[in-house]
Design goal:
3 helices, 3-stranded antiparallel beta sheet, about 150 residues, 7-stranded mixed beta barrel, M1 Pyruvate Kinase, Domain 3
Length: about 150
Amino acid sequence: MSNYIGQVIGIARRKTKRARMETLTQGTISNDHGLEGDFRGKPGPRQFSILTEEGWKEACKELSQELDWTIRRANLFIKGLDLKKTVGKQLSIGTVTFEITDELDPCSRMEEQVTGLKKALTDNWRGGILCRVISGGTINIDDRITLEETPIS
């Protein structure tokens, strides 16, 4: 049953490790490459990363700073969905379906960018989620997102 609706508000990729994030208005997603042009997109449980606006705002509030979401280095920025404790469930965005594989724990790179950011992202799943692509397609800014309440069988 799909009863939660969210919205895509940002798409980003980086071509190489430590490269600056490039924002997009549309992204092609595949099982083989994750987000087209993103260096991390190989198949597996860490293929794609998603950050919520709500979690990001909480982290920024804790730091008393307004920061651009791309500092987090996630592929997708969404709003309207609570993704806490959703491992094993699936997200659908148009024809694209992801399996949520884990909480995205912040790494030391966050601390390099902004002092205190790693800690601010650690609480309450603020760091986002990791996913693997189940079925590919195209994602656009403003696309609607459905969180499937039943785990993938």
